[in-house]
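Hi team,

Filling in the usual template for the complex we talked about on Friday. All components are listed, including any nucleic acid strands or ligand strings, so the model treats them as one assembly.

SUBMITTER: L.P.
PURPOSE: interface mapping
COMPONENTS: four
RESIDUES: 1416
SEQUENCES:
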Amino acid sequence: VVGKVRASIIGASGYTGGELLRLLLQHPAVEVLSASSERCAGRPVTERLPNLRGLTHLRYVPAAEIAADVDCIFLCTPHGVSAELAARYSAGPARLIDLSADFRLRDPATYALWYGRTHPAPELLEHFVYGLPELQRGAIAQAHRIAAPGCIATAATLALAPLLAAGLIDPQRIVVDAKIGSSGSGALPTQATHHPQRSGTVRAYKPAGHRHTAEIEQALAPLSATAPTVALTAHAVEMVRGILCTAHCFLLDSANVTAAQLEATYRDYYSAAPFVRYVHEAHGVHRLPEPGPVRGTNYCDIGCILDPHAGRVVVVSALDNLVKGAAGQAVQCLNLMCGLPETTGLTAAALHPA
Amino acid sequence: VVGKVRASIIGASGYTGGELLRLLLQHPAVEVLSASSERCAGRPVTERLPNLRGLTHLRYVPAAEIAADVDCIFLCTPHGVSAELAARYSAGPARLIDLSADFRLRDPATYALWYGRTHPAPELLEHFVYGLPELQRGAIAQAHRIAAPGCIATAATLALAPLLAAGLIDPQRIVVDAKIGSSGSGALPTQATHHPQRSGTVRAYKPAGHRHTAEIEQALAPLSATAPTVALTAHAVEMVRGILCTAHCFLLDSANVTAAQLEATYRDYYSAAPFVRYVHEAHGVHRLPEPGPVRGTNYCDIGCILDPHAGRVVVVSALDNLVKGAAGQAVQCLNLMCGLPETTGLTAAALHPA
Amino acid sequence: VVGKVRASIIGASGYTGGELLRLLLQHPAVEVLSASSERCAGRPVTERLPNLRGLTHLRYVPAAEIAADVDCIFLCTPHGVSAELAARYSAGPARLIDLSADFRLRDPATYALWYGRTHPAPELLEHFVYGLPELQRGAIAQAHRIAAPGCIATAATLALAPLLAAGLIDPQRIVVDAKIGSSGSGALPTQATHHPQRSGTVRAYKPAGHRHTAEIEQALAPLSATAPTVALTAHAVEMVRGILCTAHCFLLDSANVTAAQLEATYRDYYSAAPFVRYVHEAHGVHRLPEPGPVRGTNYCDIGCILDPHAGRVVVVSALDNLVKGAAGQAVQCLNLMCGLPETTGLTAAALHPA
Amino acid sequence: VVGKVRASIIGASGYTGGELLRLLLQHPAVEVLSASSERCAGRPVTERLPNLRGLTHLRYVPAAEIAADVDCIFLCTPHGVSAELAARYSAGPARLIDLSADFRLRDPATYALWYGRTHPAPELLEHFVYGLPELQRGAIAQAHRIAAPGCIATAATLALAPLLAAGLIDPQRIVVDAKIGSSGSGALPTQATHHPQRSGTVRAYKPAGHRHTAEIEQALAPLSATAPTVALTAHAVEMVRGILCTAHCFLLDSANVTAAQLEATYRDYYSAAPFVRYVHEAHGVHRLPEPGPVRGTNYCDIGCILDPHAGRVVVVSALDNLVKGAAGQAVQCLNLMCGLPETTGLTAAALHPA
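RESULT (copied from the run log):
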């Protein structure tokens, strides 16, 4: 890459697109050419994104005005819309990073099963690489099309991969109990996100059948002799940004596993991953991962705890659903695709207290 | 019982004792004689409990001034202190309801295992009945000494009992992922409950080894052919009052279980339990149990969801940790012990929005 | 009144109507005949009001089905709709309690000024009494039509009345800085109540021009030699239920006013008001009014503090916007109109912690 | 300055010191030599500051080990302790930036009045410059000793200065109603910050007599012909970081002031201030300042609204109490003192949603 990477965002008035805009505007090697929103076309982006006041005078344009001859186009569009746009830009020169679910599942039949509809563009699926750098950094660096993973899928997959790769746990009895903040529901108000009914609760909004289940199983399958089955339940908790995934895994041979061995397994597995921090201190309030210390950052913090009583490992992972779970991970992929250091533009620390 | 039940509370400046005071002061068949607190002795209870302003002029007394010849003494004292007090009052005429953990586990060896110390009064254990009315209403009605269950234990046991009694699930692979509000930590400030570090987080504060595990297993053991093992993880979430327990259970024969059968199992099991509501509506934000609609009440709401993909049942239960998880359940036991209708003094509805 | 008061609620799917339903269903002298909602007609009220599960099997009906020959009809309808309904029921025998703003201002010109439209039913205005019992208990007891005050108006008027009546403050320099929870915005989701944008903020949503200003000035005018001007600013804070009003008043003769005199002024003024608690303790976290200890109750807590440096009195008042600020106050009026003790059905204590 | 500015922080385990550490570690022109904490000496700073994991391996040292020959020493110590330390380092070469209140008030008598004690080091007062760059950029650039302003004082002073300088308002009737998040209470847990009692409330914790009053009046006095009197009330709201100040000011000649004139007054006054954003949009949820869009940043957003009814201007200002209200402002002063661009190290955007 000579000069700055010229990038455009389609769908920049929602939370994911807005977060991407924040990251790209502060990215030292990227120039944001345009940002689209049908609803807000013509308006300054700062009307939707008050945090960017003073940082940019960009105005939203309609998607139709996004030029094809840029270096990278980010699709922050709803599921289904991305597939249409991907088809439109598929012949063009631009790299494409899709943050929707349209190209995450490689098998159209799996897509049909979990999304309840025929895949809208199955012929494009083979061009997309699943954008989880910690599991396939090499493929991403070579890719021209990226399907950025789901937020819960990222937290769960990173939590489980080392254990499955090490063959330590029963792949048929994996429970993932996820807790997510309200920004995960997107920018459109609904009864479920109406403050009086969302505040002070914890709600099992998707006890079974969550679509990220399929992504997690697909991402983990290559690591395990037996294809894993994931029992995922998603909860809404009182928090704006953040996910905490608690993975409950049953050890195959619990008598012969030590806490030290578990820690070593994780540290080795992620030794080259700049955004995974292994967190398990001896004491203190923040001794295990939680959303605060990763908020606004691209980190995924992971810690695991041995439970000899139940023959179980509890793996706790935390990330910011809009950063490592969406926009930040997309930037991380962009960095890899462009030969930039993986952490470029993603180094700001979280706040404490958060 | 002729006339009102004369009751005293030892340890009424904490959250559990304060909540009990609120319930008893409004109970139509109870007269509160005294409430103790060493720290606050001589001060009006409304200094600690501003919600009771206008309702009472009671002042705290030292525990030493609590008379033995009342109808019922409630112990809302820390673990260990209750055992001492129980010994002191054991020869007296008063019924004793202990809200600490001291007399919940029947086997001193189990106590030693989970509490890391020798039981302080093993000779008294046989006199105590575990005060979970939904599982042993009859024994409580006959009892003179009650050990009120833990808050998470209540939520988990009520969620799991019907499935184990019906022999539907694998008793060795039970995951309980509990989420609890900050009042569960008690009234004393610590780093973990300091608002800036407790707000907006979800924290796995006890990923394994939670002491309520032993209670749950003890309460469920009689219902299951094989002794159950519970894999419990407790999380702190941003909320003041409330518990949501998500129990992940693997079906023994998942091909032959239907959602309707599960619902019938629960409705039958709790057909005589006025404080268990089976909640699983077809749609709506509040279609499953959550803490809001039980806040301030003695209800435990329970719903269950079939997950054919993972061969799993997800059971969700919600209660108010200070009411059904502590003070309300103690009053429910008192009602049963005194021959009063079980719901006396416990009928106020929750608020919505909460 | 012989037998129970037969009541119906028009507009019972919103927060105000829902709260009224909660109070009336538990009211010992009221029978709820029907509750209307166009949107939810035919559905159980518990779908919208999960807190009432187990308490009622009532279903919503269309407003057209609400019979006119009941003892009392409550209008919990939007501003404008109430005026139409009041006209419809004006010839009927039922008492009418309107919780909208339609009949609060006696002068149609004032209404036009603050609401930006001609009053929809000026001929009915004279039949309505402003339902603030602490200021006009007698008129309410004689009334057949009540206009229940606004929530902020109630908190501000009760805070200011004693000072104006005593002639202690400058009536032209009264600042009321109100803070209100999200339930005050009603049950319909908007961008302003969308959890990610409503959580963790404090927002001056109506810095000037708030319509309750007119109500407050109208209610206070009779108490003051000079007509008062109120400078009201309304803020949204992170909280579901509750209002805290901070009134900043400049003393006319600050050198000659003592804190004891201020307290006596308030205690005297409200000596016959069962729902006003004067709260100003020497120390402690909850030494002044705040929303927690009044949540779910019909109390308005008031305390005042002398500021010699600025020649100011700070009056702090707290209430639950859905109870004393709406549904509870309506029930209080009903009690007075029906000759019942003023506190009937309104005696439940708040929770602590809230 | 040649090379990086070598800085040390005394008192880096609290929130202010921790925030300063975050900013300095990411500052391109600063090298952090050491950070002290008596309590945590020997421990990694990341134990207290989990947000800095992966960013630093620094360990706390006792204050006694902080060398005097650095370029700048920041004192994040409690009031009183700073004065002792300032004396210790007063002969040294290091610039001193004190974040406590010890050197903010120029007159020891004023200090005695508001702090209730004799000033501990009156002979040092003349060496300190009040570190509010927007009001005295020049003096700070020449200074060797800085007293960083209080958080509420910063928000209030910046809100009021343009109006007083323009002579538009009555300087004797200024009401400042401040709302602040829990981090403003510091890192030590108390009853007032205990989550169950701090959550979901809004509390007038300092209705009158707040010590920042004196700072505000001192800072504003030079701008006004008549010395201003500020009537300040401080509230705790449910939020971790952030202040919203609502200043209610009465216009001297309200008939002749327009909204456009007010806006121009502010824009002119702060035309050279990179961290003051004038925010008053025509519509939208975030049309006025609020804490979200400034969280984690050094901005102070200000907007003002004309209230013709009451002859009032409402000025709303928002900042992050730990950044512009403490650590960020200290860094801004350091930049000015060292001849660096004022915004160096302070350019990261806030998150949205926050």
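MY TAKE: The first helix of chain A runs from residue 15 to 25. Chain A touches chain D through 37 residues (CB under 8 Å).

Thanks, L.
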